[in-house]
Amino acid sequence: MNEIAAAGWAARLRALTPARVGLGRTGVSQETVDLLAFQKAHAQARDAVHARLETGALAETLREVADWDVMRLHSMASDRATYLQRPDLGRRLEERSRATLNEAARASYDVGFVVVDGLSALAVERHAAPLLRAMLPQMAEWKLAPLCLVEQGRVAIGDEIGAALGAQVCVVLIGERPGLSSPDSLGIYLTWQPRVGRTDAERNCISNIRADGLSYAQAAAQLTLYLREAFRRKLTGVALKGEGPRLESDSTC
Questions:
Q1: CA distance 239 to 10
Q2: 169: helix, coil or strand?
Q3: Theoretical Cys-Cys bridge with 76: which of 53, 89, 103, 209, CB 3.0 to 4.6 Å?
Q4: Which pTM was predicted?
């Protein structure tokens, strides 16, 4: 294959994916433009991991989505450095947040939504509110718990929160680990009858919710499908498989 043909092939391939494929070279080195693009993407991923979620502003935005009661909670990880070094502390609530939650938990619910910063506060800030706005019209058949907004949390913190709320299902919206082309990817984790000690095998995940990934409408439809099957079969996790409805590509994300 000559250089012109190779360049055309690489350009067509790059049009299909954000992955770094078919990069040019200068001698044995990458071209400067590609090196700088990689360094920028790496910096964006690092910034996303270390950024702190502005919970006050996000809580107000989430309240406006559906006139929702929002509880602001915190994990046992006191700061970002501790959170990154001690994943176990991000899975449990601090004492003050636990007391706040227990005081408010006076009823049983079908579904409890928990918004968690995770490893990308940027993803939560960009996508949590519009995603919930897309979800809520499809949630009318279930009794929803007050929304919980958690700082320095991991996926499993939803188990403690869901159990305290008396929710049949806990739905965790969380910032996913950034990649070099996706610093703002949001994930959804669904757990039937949440309780401390649940494993990842007992959850279902909907991943890659972002502008260049799964749209809000697609994610909401997939979540609705999982919820209906979870209530029908009384379980989530590896035993619960579901194909999402086929949707036309849209620009709602």
A1: 41
A2: strand
A3: 89
A4: 0.85
CATH number of the domain at 89, please: 3.40.50.11240
Do residues 83 and 91 lie in contact, with contact meaning Cβ atoms separated by under 8 Å? no
Do residues 155 and 192 lie in contact, with contact meaning Cβ atoms separated by under 8 Å? no
Domain count, the chain: 1
How far apart CA 162 and CA 172 sit, in angstroms, is: 10
Separation CA 185–CA 177 (nearest Å): 8
Domain of 78? 53-233
> Is 216 domain-assigned?
yes
Residue 178 belongs to some domain of the structure: yes
What pLDDT score was predicted for residue 243?
Answer: 52
**40 is a domain residue:** no
Determine the Cα angle at 111 with ends 140 and 74, to 5°. Answer: 130
3-state secondary structure of 200: helix
Q: Could you tell me which of 84, 87, 106, 103 has the C-alpha nearest to residue 95?
A: 103
List pLDDT tens digits, range 90-138. 999 999 999 988 877 667 899 999 999 999 999 999 999 999 999 999 9
In angstroms, the CA 178 to CA 41 distance is 10
